[in-house]
Amino acid sequence: MPDAAAPRDAAAAEEESAFSHAPVEPDSTAAYGDHPDQVIDFYAPRDAGSTAPGAEAAPLVVVLHGGAWRAAYDRRHITPFADFLARRGFAVANVEYRRGGGSGGGGEGEDGAGSGGPVAGRWPDTFDDVAAALDALPDLVRQSLPQADARRTVITGHSAGGHLALWAAARHVLPADAPWRTDRPAPLRGVVALAPIADFEVAGKLDVCGGATHQLLGGKQEFLERQPYADPALLLPTGIATTLVQGRTDVVVPQAVAESYADAAAKAGEVVGLTLLGEVGHFPLIDPAADACAVVAEEIAQLAW
Length: 305
Description:
Distance between the termini: 48 Å
Strand order of the largest sheet: 1-2-4-3-5-6-7-8
Structural class: alpha/beta
Oligomer: single chain
Number of helices: 9
Helix content: 25-40%
Order of helices and strands: HEEEHEHEHEHHHEHEH
């Protein structure tokens, strides 16, 4: 009889490995706002010639960390991944943003009303910050990361950060009254979303991260009103090359979430790549010690170079 605990045990081991690496300090940090969380860490390419011989400037990879949009998880946990990309010749911008349940506001519990757990995200602050960071990035890159070629920018994000990466690339298709809407697509080479929370309906049904999608939008009552402004599966087509990388054994954000987003894209007339990795769970995608992390770097390189 199969061991029912085996997937959970494997997931725990993967998480332990991903979080075992010491944080890597950036080469520089710049603010895009006044709040302490409104900062971007920059990593210069360690060897720009390792990925594209003769290249004078490196593609820019914008990293958005995960952690269910909750304050307990900040950008520090993904700095080894940012360094991993820099050591493969990319210039990297690791974005911090305001989160819920202790990041200066947001409240507790599923509806922000004190039911006992840290709330996910801050409406509208989390979205305000990602939009502001991306808008400020070209000027900040020129000042802080001259090795980067911002004309070759790829956004990547893991889990909740994967959601934010997809959302950031879809701002031009937001509802007309959205404060974050842009009048044209972002100048991106593409998006590589890693185990993203990409479809809020499916994520809600699967109770991904303990109801985090409802919490992000302010609670169940506000969810349907705000969903068209936040759910990547409703913001299609984008016209921007997009690839999802997903572990088949992911028990944190199951494969069905990515598949649903890819299906929604197809119905909207857009082809979205979906790379499924066997015997891979949630955290190896950002773990420099895991083979899956090298697959992620290759997916980024295919869009960037």
